[in-house]
Amino acid sequence: MxxxxxxxxxxLVILLITMAACGKNSxxxxxxxxxxxxxxxxxxxxxTITHLKGEAIVPTKIDRIVxxxxxxxxxxxxxxxxxxxxxxxxxxxxDYLAYMASELEGVQLVGSADSxxxxxxxxxxxxxxxxxxxxxxxxxxxxxxxxxxIVLGTEWLEYEDDTTYWTQDLLKxxxxxxxxxxxxxxxxxxxxxxxxxxEKINGLENNQLAYLRVREKNLQIYAEKGHPTNTLLYHDLGxxxxxxxxxxxxxxxxxxxxxxxxxxxxxxxxxPNGRDNLNxxxxxxxxxxxxxxxxxxxxxxxSYWLFKGWGVIGRxxxxxxxxxxxx
Length: 327
Description:
The chain has helices spanning 2-44, 70-78, 118-124, 137-146, 167-176, 180-202, 228-236, 275-282, 291-294, 305-308, 312-326; strands spanning 46-51, 54-59, 65-67, 85-88, 108-112, 128-132, 149-152, 208-214, 219-221, 240-241, 251-253, 265-270, 298-300. By secondary structure, the protein is an alpha/beta fold. It folds into 2 domains: 47-178, 3-Layer(aba) Sandwich (Rossmann fold), CATH 3.40.50; 189-326, Rossmann fold. 30% of the residues are buried.
């Protein structure tokens, strides 16, 4: 009889112990499942970016990005992000481009876009690297070993009559930071500003413009299309082209045909080594026959318009310059 009584008691004890152990395991599992998302957010969250070379897996939180294009620097600053390393432009003294210099203070310089300093880039331990499609294949392969490398470059593709193609790279850069909507807002703000300036230009009695570049030994005239700065001037802002303005590609201007330049406004972009040539042009009797020269409507830019045309910040500054010129 004693054995009959003890058996149920033993069974009950075993059952209680088993239940306690199961309960303990259940608590541990709950605690474990609560900790997993924290680990993912802390360092493992990524997103896949499609670019001209395929796909790149990048962290959702980018702290260190190296940029090898003036246009992409403009794009980053447009969405409120600061690059960790940037390329230099050799013909402008191997430093930051002046129009973005104040916002780039302290950012590391890593060589030119054509010849980046791979050792300097590696030392920065970047999360992501941005390069242009024209960057050499060998350089791309070397950069890929350092960090995920995203290849952009709508500037080197054919977009026919699409004057907004320059925005595609901006939107791709914004995608890296989940700021596409912000980028679209910045583009819309620029479009409004440009449209307001266009109204003033269209209201001018004479608005033929020539966009010229003074180089070391020659003078060039930019085309109506073929570059976002050109289309900003002739399409978005609405200046009329001159009889000598090419359709697609810039061309040289000899002094002999300069009197045929029927420009009411002349924009001069002067290369750092073009000063002596500019002095010679200004002394020429043939140059004095241009309507814009006679009416003192020759505007010398800060030599960065070709870079500024690729980004929201730069294009906004060009619009500001144009308004000063016509007013």
